[in-house]
Amino acid sequence: MSKSRLNNLFKIYVIVLVLGTLLVSVVLFFYLETLKKDLPSFDQLEKYEPRLITKVYSEDNVKIKEFFEEKRNPVDLDLLPPHLIEALISTEDREFYHHWGFNTLATIRAAMLNIPKMLTGRKAHGASTITQQLARNLYRSIGFAHSIERKIKELLTAIDLEKMYSKKEILEMYFTQSTFGPGVYGIQSGAKYFFGKSAYDLNILESALLVAQLKAPAHYNPYRKPERAFKRRNLVLHNMLVEGYISEDDYVRYIREPIELVEREKEGLGIAPYFTENVRKDLNKINEEYGVDYLNDGLTIYTTLDSRMQQYAEDAIDSNIDFLTRRTKANFIKDKNGLHKYVRTHYDSLRWEYKMTDSLMIDSIAEAKLKPEFALIAVDPRNGHIKAMVGGSDFNKTKYNRATQAFRQPGSIFKPILYLSAIDNGYSPATRILNQPLVLIDNDGKRWSPGNFNRDNIGGKLSLRHALRHSLNTVSARVINELVSPREVVSYAKRLGINTRYINPYPSIALGSGALRPIDIVTAYATIANKGTMIKPFSIEKIVDRSGNTIVENIPEKKVALSEETSFIITDMMKDVVENGTGKRLGWKFGLRMDLAGKTGTTNSSTDTWFCGFTPELAVVVWVGLDDHAYKLGKKATGSNTALEVWGTFMRSVFRNLDYDKDLKFEKPDGVIEVEVCKDTYETAAPYCPDTYTEYFNKKHYREKICKKHGNSNIIKKGGRRKRY
To answer: Do 205 and 234 form a contact (C-beta atoms < 8 A)?
Structure first.
């Protein structure tokens, strides 16, 4: 072959080589550019934000709940034991401190061995450095598929991570991101899950076992596969021996040691499950409004709850539930018509479900249908803080929160709304109303003629104070017929913070028809306690991000719903209920003798019983009832012997153990005057009225009317002195 021909062939070879190289380079360039679209940007790499636990704290700084998608806590490498880091380095990446993202020789060797496997779909092994593992753990776009493409993405991201972070930071990120089993994210969670301790306190055997699981957490789970985990742990210890981190003698001693794990506990509901579930629902709204993710952002939630008060609330319910359940069951068994009706209605299912004696069947029915349920909410009326919340007897059975979700008939607990409507419209506690039944027609055309709980307690003209004290239905019906309209009463209820969706402007609302939630009534009573200023109760006080910045701070809106004068007067009338009326057992049984106002409530069927009361510092509502409206708590069940029992137990614990002022009084505003009133005529006392008492009036509405009956009388009370009330 001639020299010129050889030269031509060489030129062609060079041209082909150059063009081929250029072509491969162009293809490789565009291929890498395509891959980079799925890789994290420099901004994403720079802003490392692992998925962290959001922690919820009570007002008294007790952690009450954690929210998370992956339960993960960051770590400080300087606080981790050296043997944990040595176990990781010797097993996962011996050249960690000497490479810049990937190990060149190990990568080439792995490529030669694994490319044929990967091309044929077989599983490949090998050579990912700690930084490469971190890359795929951090960014889902890299994926976990066994493919050449994934390895390239992983390698490129690892190089960028090494440029961006120090080796110390990479190790901290790695320990935070690694998985140690289903739902066990990060070294802190792993240490807690398997050993019940902090990662900072791990010994060498525990460290080796955790590192052993990194390869395949499910495969080497020491609870499920103890033998595999034992062998893998000892392999990690051998790696530490080879790298010179432990001595031969230590190695021999360590590998003989058995695996010691803590007994796993089921994750509990935490403190105040109904309250924290309410917080979670609020966080869902905040997520949308502020663009945060409470499941992953590692927020700190500061709530209004007092964990001690919450415990008192739960204890108060627990101490009363057995007695109330027994009484309800006893009433069910005695009520033969109700029992027979239930059995007839459900006979086909019952005869298969209960292959047992009649008495056992009755017990089973009663257990299913007649377990009393509860709701309790305590609110600070001065700022709207929810201090305690119970939404039912068992959160495990249902998350249904009766405190915030259940619309129940209020009964007489609604009467203070009726009476304050009259007071605010110029009437006084001394206003007299005839205590006689009357017939009213509701808006739907139904006739309505209420009687009193004590059917014999009728006749004469009675003051509004007396009527509220003894919860007289006949007087209440006349108040809504003669003094204020149903529409006005509904308007006042709404101003006080009550959701009036199920409260229709019918005369029957005078006795508490319709339906409202416990949180509605405690909001209204708290407004009265707060001198007429309504603050909507809330549970989240502040939210802080992982960097310590406050991103949400709840500054409640205040609305004036009532005058201070009306609030004080209705409060004093409700004090009379507690001292001399249906709530008086709070004093003689529970020793609650501070300034205290409240009202009981009982529906006709005794399905719902209530007590709501307040001091200047705390408003609390308790509801006791049955979820199934068809059944009764008992013929003799009333608010005063059911809900009030829970309320009194709770408040006694609060005032015995917490810093609440027993001597604090409701402040009388300047616009309220004290007037001596004749107990017989309820008019301003004349010099010779035999029985008088001091009554409060709104100065703006007061018109003096001297008692004419005793104006010129010589009647003197026994002993020559007038009796005062």
So the answer is: no
